[in-house]
Amino acid sequence: MTTLTLALLGLLLVAAALLVLAPLRNSTVSDPDALERSRLEAERERLFGELRGLTPDTEPRRPELEGRAARVLRSLDGMPPAPSGRLPAPWLWGGLGLLAALVVVGAFSFIPGWQLGGLNAAEANTVKTAVQLPGLAARAKASGSVADELSWGKAAFDAGQYDQAASAYAAALKQNPRQAEALRRLGIILLTRDDNAAGNGATTQAKPNDQAFLLIRTAAQLAPSDPESQLLLGFALSRYGQDALALTALERYRSLNPQGRDADEMIAAIRSRQNSADPGTAVYAANCASCHGAAGGGGIGPSLRMAGLTRVSVAAIVKNGKGAMPAFPAITGKSLDALLMLVDGWQK
Asked: Among 8-22, 62-76, 209-223, 299-313, which stretch is predicted with the lowest mean pLDDT?
């Protein structure tokens, strides 16, 4: 928190205290909300004091304290004004003008921090990013540096301002074409625009965008261990109808980001398509994919693509089990033949 912010807060509190106390001092009209108002004001001051006194050891308490402070401020804002038996003195009108000015300034500095206290982390980050966009854009256009262009592009992309993000990432790539984040995000923006054009009644059927696919694939080659590179590569491959390769990329995304759930719906859709078209894939998805990966690339169990197993070996393992793998005696006949053909194709 900056010194300017603390100074504005102090002035705001002093002005607010004067405005609250003046009517009470100059009026004999009773205030039915006086006790509750006083309690909330005391709670507000206590929370502000605790926030100002946070140390590195107690810093983890900041989100909790800010959330409580936000709720107290909203409660105070929702209360009716304190009754007064007379019009404010002339100096008080000046105080009101000062308070209004402080509120306007605070709206761009201190107050938003308390308003964000009532939002979840994702919503708060989106709001903060949107507020920062104009400044980031101006700085990037003034400096023309790759770092500033990337900062602007990332903020715009995260805030859903994709036109701005495309402009920023394109400018960064003109100076340095080996920016993986700029490549993949510009590529996915182009693919998304194709989808939107088709959804908005475009006269020609939208086709996969070769330039977009090239951007995303290049980003995955530059940053193969980046989860987002694999996620967007899987999406692009699926658009081109390369479901097997798409599943490999999406499973790699899952291994790089075990907590990420962005690929779940796409993986389910690809599996559904494969199961309806290939009986071997259907048998595999129902019995094997949970351990060996959606495309045989491995998971809890080993990779079937790199195992070097013969059809006879696979059939024996399916029938009798091996090591931690249980036997699947119910897979027989055409179902077993289809599964063996699938795994045998992976080996080759």
From this structure: 8-22
Q: Are residues 207 and 339 in the same domain?
A: yes
**Would 171 be classed as within a structural domain?**
no
Q: Is residue 135 part of a domain?
A: no
Task: Record the tokens describing residue 179, joined without a space.
Answer: 């920016």
Q: For residues 141 and 138, what is the distance between their CA atoms, to the nearest angstrom?
A: 5
Rounded CA separation 287/317 (Å) = 13
Structural domain range at position 25: 3-82+90-118
> Which residues, in sequence order, are CB contacts of 140 under 8 Å at separation 6+?
148, 149, 151, 152, 168, 171
Q: How confident is the model at residue 27, as a pLDDT?
A: 47
Residue 274 domain flag:
yes
Q: Which of 73, 101, 118 is the last residue before a domain boundary? A: 118
Torsion 31-32-38-40 (CA) sign: negative
What's the DSSP call for residue 117?
A: G
pLDDT of 133 reads: 83
State pLDDT tens for residues 188-214. 998 877 655 545 544 344 455 688 889
Both 342 and 214 in a single domain? yes
Q: pTM of whole model > 0.85?
A: no
